[in-house]
Design a protein that fits this description.
seven-stranded mixed sheet, alpha/beta, about 30% helix, 14 strands
């Protein structure tokens, strides 16, 4: 299993997940040029990609989708309501016919030698999804744009080798910041985003001896700092009710506007 965050943040999201023979993009919230540059940094190019999976239709997850679909004719996997919302939004140009592959929450399907498990997430979008990937005995999941989590989400994230989990905002920064009231309420709602503290609480439920990498992602540029997210999440883990301490795990912050390190298991 190979994972690289090409970018993860409120201004754009694109994650590479692959194996030796299969290469996937999760979301395309960057320009086609930036996606290509990010792939080049890990020894790949756009033509190597087998498919793109879309979590939901917000601009920071799809703004490059039109360009790469027209240029590369990539199969697109997403929920039907999400695909319809993308087309109705009309902001990414024409998508060639025949590329859309409908998927639903709680579906298991394969692309090459990667098995994909889709699951429903709580976010203010048409039909948002998270994804768990398995190849051989290795596994990785992406769980961002979560307004909240529950036992269902925890079940999707158990026994992983690696995870990208949302650590979007610091509640105090958000409440004191310049965002209008309605936007603050949206972010803080059960269909908004996980705070640093909530990310730590979620991780407490899924920590285990075999968890090799934790990536904190989708950080807000205006309402968070990487060092603050790291400090808060680590404190929640260390002070939590599990036997684990933050130092027991490799925890990284996904960069908002540039690729992270290539992780391999």
């Amino acid at each position: 299993m190979r994972v690289c965050t090409i970018a993860s943040g409120s201004s754009g999201n694109c994650i590479y997940v692959g194996s030796e023979s299969t290469h996937l993009l999760i979301d395309a919230g960057l320009s086609g040029k930036r996606i290509e540059q990010g792939l080049n940094e890990i020894g790949l190019c756009g033509k190597d990609i087998d498919a793109v999976l879309i979590t939901h239709e917000h601009a920071d997850h799809i703004q490059g989708l039109g360009v790469i679909s027209r240029k590369l004719a990539l199969p697109i996997y997403t929920a039907e309501k999400t695909y319809n919302a993308i087309l109705q939004g009309g902001k990414i140009g024409k998508i060639p016919e025949g590329l859309f592959n409908e998927i639903s929450a709680d579906e298991i399907f394969s692309i090459g030698d990667i098995e994909v498990h889709s699951f429903s997430t709580s976010h203010d979008a048409a039909d948002p999804l998270g994804f768990r990937f398995e190849s051989g005995d290795k596994s990785f999941a992406i769980a961002t744009d979560l307004g909240c989590y529950n036992d269902y989400i925890i079940r999707q994230l158990t026994d992983l080798d690696g995870i990208l989990v949302e650590s979007n905002h610091d509640v105090r920064m958000l409440e004191a910041g310049a965002y209008p009231y309605f936007l603050k309420q949206r972010i803080l709602s059960d269909r908004g985003h996980l705070s640093n503290e909530e990310a730590g609480h979620l991780l407490e439920h899924i920590l285990h001896d075999g968890l090799k990498n934790i990536i904190l992602g989708h950080l807000s540029k205006e309402n968070n700092y990487p060092a603050l997210a790291m400090k808060t999440v680590c404190a929640e883990i260390t002070m939590g009710e599990t036997p684990y301490k933050a130092g027991d795990f490799k925890i990284d912050i996904a960069k908002r506007d540039m690729p992270g390190a290539l992780l391999e298991w």
